[in-house]
Amino acid sequence: xxxxxxxxxxxxxxxxxxxxxxxxxxxxxxxxxxxxxxxxxxxxxxxxxxxxxxxxxxxxxxxxxxxxxxxxxxxxxxxxxxxxxxxxxxxxxxxxxxxxxxxxxxxxxxxxxxxxxxxxxxxxxxxxxxxxxxxxxxxxxxxxxxxxxxxxxxxxxxxxxxxxxxxxxxx
Length: 171
What we know:
Elements: E1 22-23, H1 28-37, E2 43-44, H2 47-70, H3 76-82, H4 84-102, H5 110-120, H6 135-139, H7 147-158
Parallel strand pairs: 1-2
Helix pairs in contact: 2-3, 2-4, 2-7
């Protein structure tokens, strides 16, 4: 949901017509059935399949919001179209960092999946928010693992674009 009172946007994209929403666990099918009753798609997957999908969502919001904020974009769509190479570089960096830290493999096509999702929510406004739940995961990996991501965060902090104090990076 992009804003309060707005209809939910399904994760159906040109790359993933089956949708990107995924659930796992003992109640996954019940949850998927409830979403289906609302006309939304949800894929029930194993825990092993869920982890890369979960991290892709974290990578999407962390990347597009950060690049958009750093580059003064009004929306994630503008961040993706006006700064495509930078977005792709950050996504690649974060995928590699997560793969190394968590020991998981991402299915091919991450950049394309995330770009296609951006097309669905192109007008979503940019802003680095909920740092503790989003970008902090990558920031805490340090500048060696996430140099572009962390440089952009520091640039945003230096420019006064963050609504919080960036913690001192210990790694």
